[in-house]
Design brief:
By secondary structure, this protein is α+β, with helices and mostly antiparallel strands. The protein contains 13 helices and 13 strands. It is globular. The structure holds zinc ion (ZN).
Length: 362
C-alpha cells in the first residue's frame, strides 16, 4: 500500500518490485535526511504559534530527489509551506479591473499583427504579433476575457487551438521554422507584463528551445542504455507510487517528483506516430487549468505546451503540457531564488499527492 506523502517516497520505492523498482533505481536518486536545530527559550512561544509545535521544527525531514538523466532536482520540506512570508496588501480583483480598457481589450486597433494576418475564432480569441519578439515567429492569442481567471475551459481550449492554427500557417510558409512552443504566463507573478488574458506561441528554427532539447537528449540516452521508452517509464514510475492518473491509452496526468516549482503537473500525450494537438487534448489541458484555478486556488501560473518538431523528426516524442503555480498574488517574496536559478535544485513546499488528489478526471 502506497503511503500518500512525498515524505514517504523512500519507503514507497523500497516496496516496489520488478520493473517499477528498476525504473526508479535507474532514473532517480532519492535521499532523506533530517535537519536539526535548537530553539532558544525566548523563541518557543513564537515557534509554537507559527508552526503549531516545536518538534517538527527541531527535527525537519528533508527529501532530496534528482533525475539522473534530465538533472531535474527538487527538495521537499513541508515546513517551508508554514514559514512566515511577507505579503503586500493587494486588492487583486481591483487591480485586474483597474486595467480594463487596455490595448488587449481593443486588439484590432491597438495591437500589431503578423504577416499571415489575424486569425480569429468564435470564442472571441484573436491573434496579434508580439511587439517585442523572443524569436522570428512570436505571436499572441488575445482572450476575449480581460481577466484570464474568468476564461472557461471551452474558451481556453479554443485559444490553444487558435495558437496551433497560427503555428501551422507560419510553418507552411517557412518549412525550416519547425520547432513550436505554446505558453501562457497568467498574471503578474508568472512573468506576464499584461493582465488581459493571452497565450503566446513561438516557432523557431535550427533546434528546439534549450530545455526541450535537453529533455530529448535525456530520453535518447535513457533509450540507448535501457532499450526502453523514457516517457512511458516516467509515467509508469509515477503510477506505481500513486502520482499518475491514466486518462486514456495515450494520455496520462502526473505530478512529477522533481517539479521545477510548486504544484507542478504534466499531461503527457504520446503516440507511435506524430502526436497532434487535437481538440480533445486541448480540452484536457484547458480543464487542467480550470482545476488549478477553482480546486487548487492558483491565481498566477505558467503553462507550457511542449510540441515536437513539425516534420516528425523526433519519433516517439510526446506532447507535454506543464503547469506550475507561481504563488499568491499577495506575496512580495519571489518564488525563484539562487537554488532554482543557479543550483537548479528547486525548493518545494507543496506535496505532489495533495495536488493530484484535487484534480478531477480530465
Ligand atoms: Zn483588457
Amino acid at each position: 500500500m502506497v503511503k500518500k506523502g512525498i515524505m514517504h517516497i523512500e519507503e514507497n520505492v523500497k516496496r516496489l518490485r520488478g520493473i517499477n523498482r528498476e525504473i526508479f533505481k535507474e532514473v532517480y536518486t532519492i535521499s532523506t535526511g533530517s535537519g536539526r536545530l535548537i530553539i532558544p527559550e525566548a523563541m518557543i512561544a513564537w515557534v509554537k504559534q507559527t508552526f503549531g509545535t516545536t518538534r517538527i521544527v527541531e527535527n525537519q525531514k528533508i527529501v532530496k530527489i534528482m533525475n539522473n538523466y534530465t538533472y531535474e532536482g527538487a527538495i521537499f520540506n513541508e515546513l517551508r509551506a508554514k514559514r512566515p512570508v511577507q505579503s503586500v496588501k493587494t486588492d487583486v480583483s481591483k487591480t485586474i479591473k483597474s486595467s480594463i480598457g487596455d490595448s488587449f481589450c481593443v486588439p484590432e486597433q491597438k495591437t500589431p499583427y503578423d504577416p499571415i494576418g489575424r486569425l480569429k475564432n468564435r470564442f472571441g480569441g484573436i491573434t496579434a504579433s508580439n511587439i517585442s519578439k523572443y524569436d522570428e515567429y512570436h505571436g499572441l492569442v488575445i482572450f476575449k476575457e480581460h481577466n484570464p481567471l474568468e476564461a472557461s475551459a471551452m474558451s481556453i481550449a479554443s485559444y490553444i487551438l487558435l495558437a496551433k492554427e497560427w503555428i501551422e500557417k507560419n510553418h507552411k510558409k517557412d518549412k525550416e521554422a519547425k520547432y513550436p512552443f505554446i505558453m501562457w504566463n497568467c498574471l503578474w507573478r508568472s512573468g506576464a507584463s499584461i493582465i488581459h488574458g493571452h497565450l503566446q506561441m513561438l516557432l523557431t528554427r535550427n533546434h528546439h528551445y534549450a530545455g526541450i532539447q535537453l529533455l530529448r537528449e535525456a530520453a535518447q540516452r535513457y533509450h540507448r542504455k535501457t532499450k526502453r521508452d523514457y516517457f512511458k517509464d516516467i509515467i509508469k514510475a509515477h503510477e506505481a507510487i500513486g502520482l499518475a492518473k491514466r486518462i486514456d491509452k495515450e494520455t496520462a496526468l502526473i505530478t512529477p517528483i522533481t517539479p521545477a516549482k510548486e504544484k507542478e503537473s504534466w499531461i503527457i500525450y504520446q503516440k507511435d506516430k506524430h502526436p497532434e494537438l487535437t481538440e480533445e487534448l486541448a480540452m484536457r489541458i484547458a480543464k487542467l487549468v480550470r482545476n488549478y484555478i477553482t480546486k487548487l486556488g492558483v491565481e498566477s501560473f505558467n503553462l507550457g505546451i511542449i510540441l515536437p518538431p513539425l516534420d516528425n523528426s523526433w519519433k516517439g516524442f510526446p506532447i507535454i503540457a506543464k503547469i506550475i503555480d507561481r504563488g499568491s498574488l499577495h506575496s512580495s517574496t519571489n518564488d525563484f531564488g539562487a537554488m532554482e536559478v543557479i543550483a537548479k535544485h528547486s525548493i518545494i513546499s507543496t506535496d505532489p499527492y495533495k495536488v493530484i488528489e484535487k484534480i478531477d478526471k480530465l
